[in-house]
């Protein structure tokens, strides 16, 4: 006996396809357990680090102070200024006398002894000359 | 409350930006969201678990590396990932084909392995073989339409072609499928014309 001819319609094809693809998805193997771990390990390696913030949290106080004042160049400048300050403080009379005499600002020929130096003599001269 | 629950309402792009900003939980959130779909896409294209896992890992690696330059308005992360996975799978398939041809083997039988797994399910095998016989882009468009249930516009976006091209691919693919399946009606559960 001959069966009636049956041509697959679009709707039947769509239904078959849908069923097949959904079943195929269900039959699909699950990813192995370590895939997630591998992906997360890569993520950790690639993730940008907030370096400035972390560095600021972890550095000691003296390092923070050192960075704050400008590092080695500033420290060298401060050291130099300190040494010069001590030097000036210890030998100020001689230095001031020598300095004034070199500019001929001493008003008295007898004022050669360090205890007779008038540190404001230059100021008087300034007033006189206007 | 889990530490990454606050990402529940965030879209993938926002989570990726959080990853780029150093949030340690963002990677786990994105991986959980995207990995199942990425793996299944890779497996559907490659039909090999190890290869699909390698492609999945590779695709994520590219996502992590692009993260600092990601612009949230440029594309959806899922669409971007789909394209990356597709290209990786095409490259891998091409290399396999070249190496097999170099070794003097026959052309790849895309149904190899499926027959063993589904040997009692003749209908599934027939459909599988017919689908595998389609050109790649036709199969891809049909799969996106019938499995992922995407609209033509979304398919066009993922495949980087026009909507008209998608309609054409699906239409030609279905015509080809019908033609391929005509001779296998019994396996599909239809009556044979001459029975």
What this model shows, in words?
The complex is a heterodimer of chains A (130) and B (195). Chain A is mainly α and 130 residues long. Chain A has helices spanning 10-27, 33-46, 51-58, 61-68, 71-90, 92-102, 121-129. Chain A has seven helices and no strands. Chain B is mainly alpha-helical. Chain B has two domains: 1-108, Orthogonal Bundle (Rna Polymerase Sigma Factor, Chain: A), CATH 1.10.1740; 109-195, Arc Repressor Mutant, subunit A. Chain B has helices at 12-20, 26-46, 49-66, 77-102, 114-117, 122-133, 136-146, 152-159, 163-182, 185-188. The longest helix of chain B has 26 residues, at 77-102. Chain B is elongated. Chains A and B meet through helix 1 and helix 2 of A and helix 2, helix 3, helix 6, helix 7 and helix 9 of B.
Architecture of the largest domain in chain B in CATH? Orthogonal Bundle
- The count of DSSP E runs of length 2 or more, i.e. the number of strands of chain A, is 0
Helix share bin of chain B: 55-70%
State mean pLDDT of chain A (0 to 100 scale).
Answer: 73
Strand coverage percent of chain B: under 5%
- Please name the fourth-level CATH homologous superfamily of the largest domain in chain B: RNA polymerase sigma factor, region 2, helix turn helix motif
CATH top level class name of the largest domain in chain B: Mainly Alpha
Pick out its properties:
heterodimer; A: 130 residues; mainly alpha; 0% strand; rod-shaped; B: 195 residues; Rna Polymerase Sigma Factor, Chain: A; Arc Repressor Mutant, subunit A; 2 domains; 10 helices; elongated
Short note summarizing the structure:
The complex is a heterodimer of chains A (130) and B (195). Chain A has helices at residues 10-27, 33-46, 51-58, 61-68, 71-90, 92-102, 121-129.
Write the layout of secondary structure elements.
The complex is a heterodimer of chains A (130) and B (195).
Chain A: H1 10-27, H2 33-46, H3 51-58, H4 61-68, H5 71-90, H6 92-102, H7 121-129
Chain B: H1 12-20, H2 26-46, H3 49-66, H4 77-102, H5 114-117, H6 122-133, H7 136-146, H8 152-159, H9 163-182, H10 185-188
Helix pairs in contact in B: 1-2, 2-3, 2-4, 3-4, 6-9, 7-9, 8-9
């Amino acid at each position: 006996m001959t069966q009636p001819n049956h041509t697959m319609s679009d709707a039947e094809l769509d239904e078959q396809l849908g069923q097949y693809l959904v079943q195929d998805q269900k039959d699909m193997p699950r990813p192995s357990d370590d895939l997630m771990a591998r992906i997360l390990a890569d993520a950790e390696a690639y993730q940008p680090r907030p370096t400035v913030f972390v560095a600021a949290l972890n550095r000691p106080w003296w390092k923070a102070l050192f960075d704050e004042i400008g590092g080695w160049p500033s420290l060298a400048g401060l050291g130099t200024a300190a040494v010069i300050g001590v030097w000036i403080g210890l030998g100020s009379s001689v230095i001031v006398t020598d300095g004034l005499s070199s500019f001929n600002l001493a008003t008295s020929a007898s004022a050669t002894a360090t205890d007779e130096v008038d540190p404001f003599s230059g100021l008087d001269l300034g007033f006189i000359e206007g | 409350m889990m530490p990454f629950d606050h990402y529940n309402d965030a879209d993938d792009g926002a989570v990726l930006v959080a990853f780029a900003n150093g949030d340690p939980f963002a990677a786990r959130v994105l991986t959980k969201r995207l990995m199942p779909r990425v793996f299944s896409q890779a497996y559907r294209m490659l039909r090999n678990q190890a290869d699909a896992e390698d492609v999945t890992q590779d695709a994520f690696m590219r996502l992590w590396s692009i993260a600092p330059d990601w612009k949230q308005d440029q594309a959806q992360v899922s669409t971007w990932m789909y394209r990356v996975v597709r290209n990786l799978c095409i490259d891998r398939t091409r290399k396999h084909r070249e190496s097999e041809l170099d070794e003097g083997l026959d052309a790849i039988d895309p149904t190899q392995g499926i027959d063993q797994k589904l040997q009692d399910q003749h209908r599934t095998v027939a459909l599988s073989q017919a689908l595998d016989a389609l050109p790649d882009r036709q199969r891809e468009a049909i799969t996106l339409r019938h499995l992922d249930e995407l609209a033509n516009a979304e398919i066009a976006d993922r495949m980087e072609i026009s909507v008209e091209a998608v309609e054409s691919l699906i239409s030609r693919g279905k015509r080809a499928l019908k033609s391929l399946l005509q001779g296998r009606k019994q396996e599909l559960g239809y009556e044979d014309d001459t029975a």
